[in-house]
Amino acid sequence: MSLCSRGAILRNTKLNLLGLALNPVARFSTQSLSLRSRITPQNNVFPKLHSQSRCFSATPFQCEQPPLEPLANLLPVCCPGCGAFSQTVEENEPGYYKPSRKQTRKLLSAINGTTPKIDLDEAFPDDLIDEAVPPKPIRDAAFPDDAVEPEDNFTGSSRDRITHVCDRCHDLIHHNKAVDSPKPTILSIRNYLEESPYKWNRVYHIIDAADFPMSLIEGIHWSLMLQQQRSKNRRAPTEKFLRGRKLPTISFIITRSDLLAATKEQVDSKMQYILTELRAALGRSNRDFRLGNVHMISAHRGWWTKEVKEEIREHGGGIWVVGKANVGKSSFIEACFPKDSRNLEDVEEWMERRQKQNTQNRRTARHDPNSLLPPAPPEDLYPVLPVVSSLPGTTVSPIRIPFGRGKGEVIDLPGLERGLLEDFVKDEHKRDLIMTKRVKPERCTIKPGQSLLLGGGLIRITPVNPEDTVMAASFLPLESHITNTPKAIEMQAEERQCPGTVIMKEGVGSEMSSAGKFDLKWDTTSSNLPITLAKAVKDRGVPIPNLPYRVMSADILIEGCGWIEISIQIRTKRSTEEEHSYPQVEVFSPNGKHVGSRRPIECWNFIADKQRLDKRKRPGSRS
Question: Which domains does the chain show, CATH number per domain?
Fold first, then answer.
């Protein structure tokens, strides 16, 4: 045998020995937690989430070694960050744990007496180890159910432990990139609800304030078999049953409300507007039902989160967080999850109870392979909460988080399809579509014969009547540019270079079409009065006189991004002559989609009032 062949055999032997130490689950002992999907022609569920298995790779080389702790018992059943079942086979799939990752190696070497410490520097050359950057420790941390925990970690708070999330969540947290995950359908969410182990269930429907009410799930009461909204009749039943099962209730959560205004009081003033628009979006008459189950919160600033947290704690049972992709479901859970406030003096009693739960879970976690829901983890003092990311589709599979000493659990569900506007945007600019902080725009004037371009041509707004002068305030995280309409058409068709940052992909210009003509049909004259007249009306109660003009407005919504407040001043005589017609604007977008309209929310007035106040406070200005 040549020296080269002998060196290759020794090298392969080292690799196989190390692979067996890191992945000791051989083919004959591989334990798989497969969730078999219930796919039928009537039940159109996404197969990716339901067919995912917890699987581990095995090395073909076998040698006599002392029994080692299987890697399957060291990793969590599901990744606590995204909910995907843990696996070590498909590197580009959610739930993948790389054995050579430093965090996994630390977990293996921490198990004294079960897994020997392995010097990877000797076993592997530097060019063979693809070591990922270790994530920063997350304070709210806990080890997986099946893991054998080091005794050192029992002596202090469970905040000292390391959160072991999958490689996909690691990339989301530290690199803002991840493999895209499939989106469920509303029937998939309904199947999850039907498997609830609780008698009392409540759905928290998360709606984004940025494009409200476009992120509302149409027909959610019927699709998920929920209790209908209570009518104004005092004798209306509060609970309804179907085939002996109590129907789940629903609460509407308008999240990211800090995007609407700078202060809590200003946002509070928009609550009646939210209720009115929600009634219209639900397709019911104002007199049909009441809306006492609507909350407008800000997880970023902590507005109204305490009230929702107490509501969840008192309700208990199954708390199901439902919504479209990237509306803030994980942020809602992070802010409103009812954490336990017990003192740390009873840690020993708590850990003894937790060990019993671990034993019970190991016995019951695999008892139903047909279940769509993953096995419930034990309740922890400081639970690992879902990963919060601005990228859509962070949550892959349901994430169950118990609370209240067995009183209930919060289930974070994957987001439904919200729209595919991001498919027409360059990868490096996809995050620019998401409004992460409140926009303070300048009000611009679209003169006759001009158009407004947004995002370098991704959206174009053109007045239908070329003689109209339109005012626009863009509450979008996109650059705006006003130019004459022929040039704007050429820029959107990629026939002319657009100034500023162009975020749309090349070739999208050929897919631009009209999303429709939108009426500016809401009269906002009272909100656009001259300063002296507005002050007299507000302070002294002077009635608004008959004016020779009217201000007509509407909000143009861009799905998942924000809105543009459009207004126009017309003669009163014109509004009388054209009784059944209103000024219009036409919007052009990719494939003529991702655009809507609503009654104006008039958030620009908050900015205008502040500008006038700041101007009066300047030195030398008149008071």
Answer: 3-175 (no CATH), 186-340+381-412 (3.40.50.300), 422-617 (no CATH)
Residue 35: both structure tokens together = 């969730």
Give the C-alpha separation, 433 to 562, whole Å.
9
Instruction: Return d(Cα 68, Cα 45) in angstroms, integer.
Output: 39
Give the relative orientation of helices 102-109 and 3-22 as an angle to the nearest 10 degrees. 70
Whether residue 486 contacts residue 451, with contact meaning beta carbons closer than 8 Å, is answered with no
Of residues 340 and 597, more confidently modeled: 597
Q: How many CB atoms lie within 10 A of CB 210?
A: 28
CA–CA separation, 78 vs 358, rounded Å?
15
**Interval 332-383: pLDDT, tens:** 999 999 876 555 455 556 656 666 665 555 444 454 677 888 888 878 777 8
Question: Distance between CA 544 and CA 529 in Å, rounded?
Answer: 9
Distance CA(59)–CA(343), nearest Å, equals 47
What is the DSSP secondary structure assignment for residue 79, as one 8-state letter?
-
> What is the DSSP track for 515-584?
EEEEE--EE-GGGS--HHHHHHHHHS-PPPPPPSEEEEEEEEEETTTEEEEEEEEEEHHHHHHSTT---E
Tokens of 493: 């068709």
**Are 375 and 369 spatial neighbours (Cβ–Cβ below 8 Å)?**
no
Extract long-range pairs of 425-433: CB within 8 Å, 24+ residues apart.
Answer: 425/455, 425/458, 425/503, 425/504, 425/505, 426/503, 426/504, 426/505, 429/501, 429/503, 430/391, 431/176, 431/390, 431/391, 432/477, 432/478, 432/503, 433/477, 433/478, 433/503, 433/560, 433/561
CB atoms within 10 A of CB 181: 24
